[in-house]
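hi!! sorry for the late reply, been swamped w classes. u asked for the two structures so here they r. pasted raw, havent cleaned anything up. first the sequence of the first protein and right below it the tokens
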Amino acid sequence: MTLLVVGGSGFIGLNLIEVLLSSSEQVISLDKSPIPPAAMNVFSKLPGKFTSIQLDITNTGDVDRVVSGGDVDIIFYGAAITAGVEREISDPLSVFDVNVIGLLNVLKAACRTPSVNRIINISSGSAYGNGGFGDTGWKDSLDEFGTREDPQTLYAISKYAGERVALRMGELLNKRVINVRLSAIFGRWEYDTGVRDTLSAPMQATLLALKGATALIDRKEERDWTYSRDVARALYKLANHENVKSSLYNISSGKPWSVFDWCAVLKMSYPDFNYRLCEFGEVPNIDLFGTRDRIKMSPDRFLCDIGYTLSADLNEIFEDFKIWLNESNGFWNLET
């Protein structure tokens, strides 16, 4: 089976490629940016076959040649610009070029390619928008079809639009499209790609721990943080499942915890590291990207249909994460 990962050089893409290659799959990565050298070093030791292609997904002809010429069976669309406020102001078109237009290009190419039997669009919990904070009347765990979405930021709007576009194109062109909404993700291969403006709070804390610094946090948040490698495994399970019943799934651990909990785990391995709440007038060095926390996303539909549970055991997660930190030595430049 040949699997195409669009956005393979990004945070989720690298995790997905690692899981696919570990399972001896044939994988093609499509991205404007190269695969980081530390990732290539790890991938080269895995049993699967890997091809990396650099191109701009907004170029229709280039995308069509890759998709139609590679005997691709399954496509994961994970290319994204995760825009913060500054990018929303300075370069709003780029958000939609990648998050919607690039997706359309891949969908059109896939629909002209007989070998492609499934397209998984990797969306985000941000598509819930203000509905994810209970502003549209939903107070329980966020449900794929029960919670009314109200996206506000350009990133959230583009991800929600991408979901609707993907479903419609799949219907028109008779291809199976599945949208997935990822919760708050952190972990292996997380880095500032240049198009990702929101490095997770657990990773920010990890970088401070590696330096033996002190994390200053302005409040104790609580989110359904979910480990990136578990997300990649969930996506692979979804790709292989024969009887996928839904067109939309949340992918989440479903269990909220705080970056303070993660800091406590870090402290056990990095004794020079400290963490605390900010005192009056102090500036935090952990950015939580907001003053309130989204309601946790329900993983029940994914568990019921696909049969996979994502871990919320921080000690278990950290053991795997620490192995990656050691294996990928040099991935992060800690001097900056």
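now the second protein. again sequence first, tokens right under
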Amino acid sequence: MRDELDRPWEHPAHPEGGSAHSPREHGEAGHGGYEVHEDDGSLNLPDNWLLSHDPAWPADNTDPEATGTDLPAAAFSAYPSVRYRDEVAAGSGEVGLADELLGPADPRKPPARTRIQRGIGKAFMIFGGTVVALLFVYLVDLITSLGDVPRGVTVAGVEVGGLNRADAEEKLRDELGPQLTDPLPVRAGDVTTRLDPADAGLGLDWAGTVERAGNQPIDPLSRLTSLFTTREIGVVSSADDDVLREAINGLAAGEINHEVREGDVGFRTVEGSAVEPFPIMPRQGQRLTDVDGAMKQIKADWLADKGVTLDVDVTPAKTTEEAVRRALEQTKPLVSGPVTVRADKTTATLTPRHISDAMQHEPSDEGALQVTLDRAKLQDVLIPRLGETERRASNAELVFAGSRPSVEPSKEGRQIDWQETFAPFFTVAGKQEGRTLEVVYQVQAPDVSTEELRKLGMKEVVGEFTTGGLSGAAARNVSTMAAAVTGSVVRPGDTFSLEAATGPRTSSKGYVEAPLYSGGTGPRVIGGGVSQLTSTLYNAAYEAGLKDAGHRAHPTFVDRYPAGRDAVSHLPDGSSVDMSLTNNLDSGVAVQAWTSGDSVTVRLWSTKQYRVSGSTSDRTDVKSPPVKRDRGPGCEETSGAEGFTVTDTRVVKALRGDRVVDRQSTTVTYRPVPRVVCESGDGGGNDGGDDGGGDPRRPGWPFLPGDERSQQVDRSRG
């Protein structure tokens, strides 16, 4: 009906959309009538339009009979309806603000400004109402929750928010109490372990834990967010710090701390000598160093369901797990079977066990795992079989079989070149068939070749000397040393050492115990008596014109040697002393020595270059032998010997002409040898005074070991 009144020209009575009395017809547009808005079909009516334009609408009395007017000839619906500007409340001629905002919508579209004003007013009313409602809710919530634990608070996973403090403490005791004895899960780096709370001195302060939660917040925003969030406050522990610290240190030392482990490939024996490689994954090194921090963390979280996580200092491994897997795949074929090593007609076998023992996996800075081989371990396996295929090089030697020395040719040797032999190992061992290595040899040249020895010019005798008086065990020792020194070759400019040429004098080399000095005197030592060969060699070198590079004369004169021209190999205490010579000739020098009967001869071969002459001075500072009286049952009388000083001078001239090449004087002081007198009876005897202080235990030897007066050698060149 409202629509019919609003748009009478669209009423179904006028199907074409027109009307018997269209607005244009009744409104007389342009002449103070109404206008139809084409955009929405609404009308703009002037004031009193209805009274002035509707002939059927009475001005005062609405009763047609009273007014005497005719009834409307057309239906009421044919007249345009009026869209009122305001809805007036019943019994009132004014429109209120609330009615305007909350009442039914005005069917007419108000101006834009009016619509904005109405929208703002409505928004303010809604906002104000909302604020008042929220404030009321906040005040009610604040009053009712005073003294309670803040909402959203949890302790070790237990919700206590919103409870009063007594209830919160009771709930914590009920739910956390049984957990106080449960082992505490502890994670530290890559280690997961457990800690017994009782052993660690841990307990719980129930009231302190609830107190930590604090009070309900006054801040409205905090109270609002607490409805949708939770806040874990942890527990307040009662702990014995000393016990807890000790427990943490024990846990760190026993389980948490460990060194870094690089990736590797291990091997296990599966059957016989077969092996199976397996991966050893890298593991970081770690150490718990912040014990105070760990104590704090445990106190706060030891009742949490997730346990406690402790910080550790980490040392990362160089290798990666992927590198270990690659090395494993590379290793598998290498130990899949034995490898044969062949040297001429001799073979040896490396089993998978041998190979795995020698394999090494070294980490690189780039994280890779390099497969290498410890050749020494494989050599130890192969040498017992393949070592016999090696040959030692032999030097050319002088052979004294006739009147002249002959040269025995040198021989090359060969030695296994292990580096070259194992060079193709990974290629050979990586195959399923043809797993054979061929031995590679390295030629070993002799130290002295045949040609070199012949060029040294050792063709004639340049010095020779013979001494006699050998007897007993001393003769055997001299013969042993003569054999050891024979064949020694001294190149021009080189120095010959008797100790180096013969080596230590031991029983394993054929030396025996014998008196230290000639005539069977002195203590018995291994190699005793060899000083006779030393003195004989010294005199042969003297005759050849070789340069003395160091020697020591006897402490007392021995008449088998020229005065001032002797040398010893033993000191009075039995220790060794060296005698050395320098080859100052242009040719090499070869040593030949042998014993015959009671004598020993030393012959030096070279090419003659000098003429040598020697002279001995008169004896000076002659001292008579002191008398040594002895009553012992083993006393042997001796005549003793004088002590004196003598100088020997050697002149070396060129082979042709009288040019003096070298002149050397050597002064030696010999001590007297006591004369031993054997006595019987109890009276008298040696008083150790005027007779020179001889030692009755050593007849003929008046000086104790180490006495610096036992000898004196002076050398001067002229």
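hope this helps!! also noticed smth abt the second:
The longest strand covers residues 643-654.
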